[in-house]
Amino acid sequence: MNKRFIITLIISAAVCLLIGALGGLSVKADNFVWYDSLNKSPLNPPNILFPIAWSILYILLAVSVSIIINKKPTDKKAVIIFIVQLILNSLWTFIFFGLKQPLFGLIEIMILDVMIIITIIKFKSISKAASYLLVPYLAWCLFASYLTFYIVTYN
Asked: Which domain of life does the protein's organism represent (predicted)?
């Protein structure tokens, strides 16, 4: 790894974690009371797993976009698509927890899933490694879509 890649990786990780944290700002203590009162899927993981999973996924996202940014010439469209899906990711937390709107959260996360697929396809045309790093993220978001669907259906 060269110096430019490491700097890009540090900045990308900071941006990914910051955008994730911005979504988390909408989560207040009463949101957990509300969330705990919902009927959740039997497959719903323990709450402690979510911050661990997201930390790992944000690191994978940072590595992936860093690979794309460091390819010459940098594909600005690919980076913009990545940023859009990252913002959508953060927006789900605000809609679902901040606004307590599971139905709108479900609609939003389905759009996010499509944007992640578009990002993977775009990244694959530039770097297979960068696209493969996004697959666990897609899998987790699809799982989150299922969990959201379950909440919408059974509450």
From this structure: Bacteria
